[in-house]
Each structure stands twice: as structure tokens, then as C-alpha cells.
Design brief:
- By secondary structure, the chain is of the alpha+beta class.
- 58% of the residues lie in helices and 8% in strands.
- It has 12 helices and 5 strands.
- A 5-stranded mixed β-sheet has the order 3-4-2-1-5.
- The longest helix is centred in the middle third of the chain and has 18 residues.
- The radius of gyration is 18 Å and the shape is globular.
- Bound molecules: zinc ion (ZN).
- Zinc ion (ZN) binds next to α4 and α8.
Length: 232
């Protein structure tokens, strides 16, 4: 499934092969991998993709796709890291593959007739999956669990786990037009913030050293309109 999604993104010319934005992404990706790789049996790989909507999404098999505009949207590295830790946690919990298997069963019923007409089944499933990947609706329980595991991963990776809380707050304050689908799909942000804060209080050994003040974070500096070379 993960390979099909990669092939589709590549065919659409969305995967960024080289860009100065990788200089921002790589240290974060390396730190998350060091902290979380032992919890998943395929290597995590992080790819920048070019899409209009700031977003990040995890695919089965360990690939994490980071939309370039998300790197511009976040205010600091901890917000970016929080998002990626959250997505990696969906992978650790096998949330994505579970949801996709469900979607495939639905798709198989929907496109059953098309298969009889001889259309390429594999390609059709991949197209269906890619469409779903952006709008997967995880359950509230899956989201909360990914938040908490994500905060554990962030803290272990040495990034401030309050970053995800700050990001939720940024979205609450943002013009709705700017809210990435990533979080507009995930309602009840205040409940998720409360759950994270409770988790931090209950685990002072892991979280006590991190400041809840976003002013303590280093603002991210990325060259605007970085040139991108796409994978073909
Ligand atoms: Zn999620």
C-alpha cells in the first residue's frame, strides 16, 4: 500500500527530490527516527511533497509526507516536529493501514464492476487510496492516542512536545481559510490540548523540563519560495 501511494505521488510529480527545505526537515526526521524507529518494523522515511494545502500524512510502510507549505506555516521547529511525531504515531499504532484496509474493502465493492470491464485494479486501488489519504477520518480515540504517543516521541527526540499544543492554538487563532486540513479534520482541539496537558503533568520526568511558553521556541527560518526539484 505504501509503495502504491509513493508511486502515485511520484507519477503526479509531487515528490520533492531536492530543496533547501530538506535542511530544516532532515535533523527533525533523524531525531524522530532515532527516538521511534524501534517501535515500527519498517524504516521511517520523510518526503517533502508539493501541494497547495499545508498538511502532513503518514502512509503504511513508514513513509511520512510533509507538504512544503506546512514548513512555511509553522512558527517554530517544535510545531513542525509535533505534527510529524503525531503522524509517525499513527504509523506506530497501525492506524493508517487499518483504516485503509477498511477503505479498500469499500472500494472493492464500489469498483467491482470496473474490474469486470478490465480496468487496472492495482492502479484504481492506488488512486482511491491516495484520495483517501488526505481525508482519512481517524476516530477521536486514534487521534488522542497519536497525540500522546507523539508527545512521548517528541520529548524523546529532544524537541519540545508543547509544539503540538502551540500549533492547535495557532489554528484556533488563525483565519479559518488558513487552517490546514490536517487539523480542520480533527475537531475538538481543546479536548486534545487538555489531554496533552494532563499527560505532561502526569509524567514530569519526561516533560517537566520543557517550557509551555511558545516564546521559548526558536522561530523557524526557511528561505521563502525555495527552489524545488521533483522526483521523476
Ligand atoms: Zn491524526
Amino acid at each position: 500500500m505504501g509503495q502504491m501511494i509513493f508511486d502515485q505521488l511520484k507519477a503526479k510529480g509531487e515528490i520533492v527530490q531536492s530543496s533547501p527545505l530538506y535542511d530544516q526537515l532532515r535533523p527533525i526526521a533523524d531525531a524522530i527516527t532515532r527516538a521511534a524507529q524501534s517501535r515500527y518494523n519498517h524504516p521511517f522515511k520523510f518526503y517533502l511533497v508539493h501541494e497547495p494545502q499545508p498538511n502532513a500524512f503518514a502512509a503504511p510502510g513508514g513513509n511520512v509526507y510533509v507538504v512544503d507549505s506546512l514548513v512555511y506555516f509553522v512558527k517554530n521547529n517544535d510545531e513542525l516536529t509535533g505534527t510529524l511525531c503525531h503522524e509517525v504515531s499513527h504509523t506506530i499504532h497501525h492506524d493508517t493501514v487499518t483504516l485503509m484496509e477498511k477503505e479498500i474493502r469499500i472500494a472493492e465493492r464500489e469498483i467491482g464492476a470496473a474490474i469486470l470491464l478490465g480496468a487496472g485494479f492495482r492502479e484504481m486501488v492506488a488512486i482511491t487510496l491516495l484520495g483517501k489519504l488526505h481525508s482519512l477520518s481517524y476516530s477521536r480515540e486514534d487521534e488522542s492516542r497519536a497525540d500522546l504517543t507523539g508527545s512521548d516521541v517528541c520529548a524523546a527526540a529532544g524537541y519540545n512536545p508543547w509544539g503540538l499544543v502551540w500549533l492547535f492554538q495557532d489554528f484556533q487563532n488563525a483565519d479559518m481559510g488558513d487552517v490546514p486540513q490536517l487539523l480542520s479534520d480533527h475537531p475538538n482541539n481543546q479536548n486534545r490540548v487538555n489531554a496533552l496537558e494532563r499527560h505532561f503533568r502526569q509524567n514530569p520526568a519526561a516533560f517537566g523540563k520543557f517550557s509551555p511558553d511558545p516564546k521559548s521556541a526558536t522561530r523557524i527560518s526557511v528561505p521563502k519560495n525555495s527552489a524545488e526539484v521533483f522526483l521523476h
